Amino acid sequence: MVETAIISDRARWAGLISARWRSAVEDIIATGRLLIEAKAALRHGEWLPMLREDLPFSEANAQRLMQIGRDTRLSDPRVLAVLPPHWSTIHALTKLTDAQFWRAVDSGVVRPDMERKHVKATQRAASTGDGPSAFYLIDGKAIGDVSVGELQSRVTALKAEIALLTELAGYATPTSSLMTIKECVPQAVIAASVRRARALQHG
Predict the structure, then answer these.
(1) For residues 18 and 39, which has the higher predicted lDDT (pLDDT)?
(2) Please, are residues 144 and 125 in contact by the beta-carbon 8 Å criterion?
(3) For position 190, what pLDDT does the model report?
(4) What is the Cβ-side half-sphere exposure of residue 65, based on CA atoms within 13 angstroms?
């Protein structure tokens, strides 16, 4: 009878945890918290067998999820709104110091499409004393991972885009919209501007 009761309790916890194991941010955090509750509630000798036999992730990953569940910073509404739906990336964020963590949140590094490499770039920037620019993303990459050549190419492309938009804006009336700009600007002018912009990009 005792053994049956133990297995039933263990099965109940395993069912609750497995049901919350999803890709949504809230479910990832909830899974970590359920693991913490289960470890405290289960009888001696039940915890490790449940991890090894009853759950859809490894014992090591369970420990990482518990670390996510313990991190109160993740419950901040500002943070919840921008966390990526990937438990491994969220776990990497828990390793940041408070200063690193909030700086990454405030500068926009923490966002739904971020990856673990962006967290590592944030840590590297902090350890080397780089300025705030090291925490921003360029074309999806932390600036610390972008080469000088890539930066120069991006700057050149932006200059070309600005030059094109400036020339086109000169032909548009105050009431013109982007949807109707073709009607305001002669096609020959647009073609010439595009050619010039491409030449700047490759020049």
Answers:
(1) 39
(2) yes
(3) 54
(4) 32
pTM above 0.85, yes or no: no
| DSSP structural state of residue 24 | S
Q: Which two tokens stand for residue 16?
A: 């609750």
pLDDT category at 62 given cuts 50, 70, 90 is: very high
* Distance of alpha carbon 177 from alpha carbon 174, whole angstroms: 9
| Burial environment of residue 201 by CB neighbours within 10 A (0 to 12, 13 to 18, 19 or more) | middle
Q: What is the pLDDT of residue 2?
A: 36
Q: What number of other Cβ atoms are within 10 A of residue 123's Cβ?
A: 16
**Which structure tokens are listed for 123?**
């840590």
What is the predicted pLDDT for the residue at 199?
59
Token representation of residue 185: 């600007």
Handedness of CA 39, 43, 45, 46 (dihedral sign): negative
How far is Cα 195 from Cα 189, in angstroms, rounded to an integer?
Answer: 10
**Length of the chain counted residue by residue:** 203
- DSSP H/E element including 44: none
**Ramachandran angles phi, psi of 156, nearest 5°:** -60, -45
CA distance 171 to 120: 47
Contact criterion met (CB below 8 Å) for 196 and 188: no
Nearest to 12 by CA among 34, 44, 33, 36: 34
